[in-house]
Design a protein that fits this description.
- The chain is an alpha/beta fold and 264 residues long.
- The chain has a single domain, classed as 3-Layer(aba) Sandwich (Protocatechuate 4,5-dioxygenase, Chain B), CATH 3.40.830.10.
- The protein has ten helices and ten strands.
- The chain starts with a strand and ends with a strand.
C-alpha cells in the first residue's frame, strides 16, 4: 500500500484534552491514511545542525512545555521505535548527499506524541524521528523529504509536524486579553494561508521556496521559520510532481491556523 506524505499543524499539548476542530481532524487521520506499517516524522521541536535520525527502539516521553494541565505531564505514548527503519532512513539520506547522524536516545516531543496519540491511539506502529535544521531553508527541507519519498511505497507514512502559522506572541496576547478573535491578525493569516493554497494549486515551486520573501505577512505569521519547515519536508516526501491537497483548515482565536496538507 502506498501512503501519502502529510503535513499537520500540531498545536499545543492541550490539543489532546481540549475540544477543537483540529483535534477532531487528527483523530480522523488514521482513517484518511489507513494503517501504515511504520511512520517517519519530522517535528519542528526536534532541531539539530544537519539531519539526525533517532534509532531508539523504545523512545520515552519529552514534556517540552510549561503551564499546562497536570494530566498532560502524566500521559505516555509508548509507540516503539524501529532501529532497522532508522538505518534505512539514514542510508537514503546519505545517498541523497546528506550527512546524517544517529541519535540512540531521544524521546517523543509534543509535536510527535500528542498528534500520534490522537491519530493512532493504540501506539503500536513504529515511529522513526528525523530532525529539522532551523538554520536551513525550505529547499533543504524539501530535499530532505524528497530523499525519503520512496518509503511511502512500502506503506510508511511520512509526516511533517509543525504549524502553518506560528506567532505565539499574538496567541498569548489574545489569551491574556481574553479575546475570541483578533481582526488584524485574522486578515494577515488569511492572506498568508491562502497564498500557500494558491501557489500549491499553481505548482509554483519557485515562489514557495522563497515564501519568506514572497508570501504576504510572512514575518507576522512566522517570526521564526522552524514551524513551517516540516511543511516542505512533507511536500518533498510526496515525490516528484506531487499533488497538494489541503485536508484541514481551522482557526483558534480566529487567526492561529491549523491547516493540514496531503502530498501524493
Amino acid at each position: 500500500m502506498a501512503q501519502p506524505a502529510i503535513f499537520i499543524s500540531h498545536g499545543g499539548p492541550n490539543i489532546i484534552t481540549d475540544e477543537s476542530e483540529a483535534r477532531d481532524f487528527l483523530k480522523s487521520l488514521g482513517g484518511l491514511t489507513g494503517r501504515p506499517d511504520a511512520i517517519v516524522i519530522a517535528s519542528a521541536h526536534f532541531e539539530t545542525d544537519g539531519p539526525a535520525v533517532v534509532s531508539d527502539d523504545a523512545p520515552e516521553m519529552i514534556y517540552d512545555f510549561g503551564g499546562f494541565a497536570p494530566e498532560l505531564y502524566q500521559m505516555v505514548y509508548p509507540a516503539p521505535g524501529s532501529p532497522e527503519l532508522a538505518e534505512k532512513v539514514g542510508k537514503l539520506l546519505e545517498e541523497a548527499g546528506f550527512d546524517p547522524t544517529t541519535i540512540e536516545k531521544r524521546g517523543y516531543d509534543h509535536g510527535t506524541w500528542t498528534t500520534m496519540k490522537l491519530a493512532f491511539p493504540q501506539a503500536d506502529i513504529p515511529i522513526v524521528q528525523v530532525s529539522i535544521d532551523p538554520g536551513r531553508d525550505a529547499d533543504y527541507h524539501f530535499r530532505l523529504g524528497r530523499a525519503l519519498a520512496g518509503l511511502r511505497n512500502e506503506n510508511v507514512l511520512v509526516i511533517g509536524s509543525g504549524h502553518i502559522t506560528h506567532n505565539l506572541r499574538a496567541v498569548f496576547s489574545a489569551m491574556r486579553a481574553g479575546i475570541e478573535t483578533d481582526p488584524q491578525m485574522t486578515s494577515k493569516v488569511a492572506a498568508f494561508t491562502e497564498w500557500f493554497a494558491e501557489k500549491f494549486a499553481e505548482g509554483d515551486r519557485e515562489s514557495l521556496m522563497h515564501w519568506n520573501e514572497k508570501a504576504p505577512f510572512a514575518q507576522d505569521n512566522h517570526p521564526t521559520d522552524e514551524h513551517l519547515m516540516p511543511l516542505f519536508f512533507a511536500w518533498g516526501a510526496g515525490g516528484e510532481n506531487a499533488s497538494a491537497s489541503r485536508i484541514h483548515a481551522s482557526r483558534q482565536f480566529g487567526f492561529f491556523a491549523f491547516d493540514a496538507w496531503k502530498f501524493a
